[in-house]
Amino acid sequence: MVVVRFLLLPLLFLYDLSKKGGQVPFSLRFFQLQKKNEKM
Questions:
Q1: By C-alpha distance, which of 15, 11, 33 is closest to 23?
Q2: pLDDT of res. 12
Q3: Contact 9, 30 (CB under 8 A)
Q4: Is 33 strand, coil or helix?
Q5: Which of 3, 4, 10 has the alpha carbon at shortest distance from 31?
Q6: What gap in Å lies between CA 3 and CA 26, rounded to an integer?
Q7: pLDDT recorded at residue 25
Q8: pLDDT single digits (tens) 13-33
């Protein structure tokens, strides 16, 4: 399921980017959480 998450991540990022017009706090937070989970 990790692969699916990595495929969805850029889609979420682009979706938030187009929706909020350049501000992507949610996507950035999600991306940081994913990185933390990988390190652990």
A1: 15
A2: 77
A3: yes
A4: helix
A5: 10
A6: 20
A7: 65
A8: 777 767 766 555 666 777 777
**Is-contact 14 4, C-beta < 8 A?**
no
Q: Which two tokens stand for residue 2?
A: 């990790």
Helical packing angle, 2-20 and 25-39, nearest 10° = 160
In terms of residues, how long is the chain?
40
- Cα distances (Å, whole numbers) of residue 30 to 19, 21, 39: 16, 18, 14
pLDDT at residue 27 in the model? 65
Backbone φ and ψ of 35, nearest 5°: -65, -40
**pLDDT score recorded for residue 33:** 74
